[in-house]
Automatic annotation (TrEMBL):
Alphabetized InterPro entries for the sequence: Mur-like_cat_sf, Mur_ligase_C, Mur_ligase_C_dom_sf, Mur_ligase_cen, Mur_ligase_N, MurCDEF_CellWall_CoF430Synth, MurE/MurF_N, UDP-N-AcMur_synth
Lineage, top ranks: Bacteria, Bacillati, Bacillota, Tissierellia, Tissierellales
A GO CC term attached to the entry: cytoplasm
Gene name, Swiss-Prot/TrEMBL: murF
Functional description taken from the UniProt entry: Involved in cell wall formation. Catalyzes the final step in the synthesis of UDP-N-acetylmuramoyl-pentapeptide, the precursor of murein.
Highest taxon in the source lineage: Bacteria
Main location as per UniProt: cytoplasm
Descriptive protein name: UDP-N-acetylmuramoyl-tripeptide--D-alanyl-D-alanine ligase
Domain Mur ligase central: from-to ranges: 112-299
Catalytic reactions of this protein: D-alanyl-D-alanine + UDP-N-acetyl-alpha-D-muramoyl-L-alanyl-gamma-D-glutamyl-meso-2,6-diaminopimelate + ATP = UDP-N-acetyl-alpha-D-muramoyl-L-alanyl-gamma-D-glutamyl-meso-2,6-diaminopimeloyl-D-alanyl-D-alanine + ADP + phosphate + H(+)
Compartments it resides in: Cytoplasm
Pathway recorded for this protein: Cell wall biogenesis; peptidoglycan biosynthesis
Boundaries of every Mur ligase N-terminal catalytic domain copy: 27-101
Amino acid sequence: MIRRNLKEIEQMIKNSKLNKEYEDIIINGVSTDSRNICPGQLFVPIKGDKFNGHNFILDAIKGGATAALWNKNEPIPTDINIPLILVEDTLTAIQDLARSYASQLGMKIVGITGSNGKTSTKDLLAGILSTKYKTGKTMGNLNNHLGVPLTILSFEEDIEIAVIEMGISEFGEADLLSSIANPDVAIITNIGEAHLETLYTRENIAKAKLEIINHLNPEGLFIYPGDEPLLKNKIEELNPKFKVETFGQESYNTYCPKLINVGESGVSFKLNESSHHIFNIGLLGKHQVYNATTAIAAAKYFDISFEDIQEGLKKADITGMRNHLIHAKKCTILDDSYKSNPASVLAALDTLYSLDKYSRKIVVLGDMLGLGDEEISMHREIGEKMDPSQIDYLFTIGPLAKHIAEGANPMIPRNNIKSYMDKKELINDLNKVVTKDSVVLVKASRDLHLEDIVNTLKDYDSPSKAI
């Protein structure tokens, strides 16, 4: 984590001011949350529409904060006994601080954005890079305008490569995050329907995500899905100085991976038809082949051998609640409850279909949020695209997800398709149909907290397999 004296902190933040008597005080780390601040840290109070972190400065001091950033326009309580660095805006200040820290460390940075697959790609790539380099990565969901700075400021001084996830929902966000990280490798995993509510069209989503290359090292590498015309045409127009590599089904791509096997143990594939190297990853779903291919492409830029790539894929630490297969006493659960959009739901269903040893397959789907004006039709299309031969029961929860049930293929017995607004009612009826040889897919947007259903189904004492 960042360790600097306050004079250095002041110099790293534009338009900041510190009393000279405090210049030699050293901070160890940064926190924006007064509830979990650690002794010696710099407290950064963030102000939002409905909250103001400056109101919790005394709590931060009690927690051991050594110093704090402070918005110049906020009144300073008289009983504060730690030094304050006055800034124009604390959010901008922590972004400046992270930008300066990243530059000082001299580490290589990989920035990853996309509608789906960001987290899996990040985890796989970090696993590969760690076979050769001191590697850091985004933890949890710290992937926005505040999370990326906090991620960077958490890295140790000896880090060599960082893999940073960048979540994008509006124009300007990728440009900002790219300006903070200044990546050496930029990756767009795909262009889907997530954030149509704020960006309105897939064309706008592509434009917003392409901002990640605005601050890409001119001698760096950009990796993107070459079958996506919204990206392909734009890159061809730009004729950039940096290197470009693509992946996809069409033969003109740099990488055209060939699936060899898919099952409960994971997937195996080759990077190209002519490749002699076969890679195995312990992740569910054939869509993970593209995530792994992207990670391999980035790893090759950093001179990782094929042997180390395979080793890194095996030891990658995968974030939970995303294609997490849990073998519980009551049933088997395919936990993909962290987020949801049309493309990721179809991928999750495809994964469920590939699990062929179960006699009963149950699908629990909640609302897909943030889809904009077409949200109802997009939910209905999910139901229409379901394979009725692969689904025994369909449960939906939420006012939007009921349209999935309405669109579900009539070949699924209507008595086996049920919609709910109450989670407890769903759980009660779900418990009546799950059996030991059942597999239950659980997926919805984060705000629905369907991990409650997962936790009800699973036995906490049983082994789980994060794959």
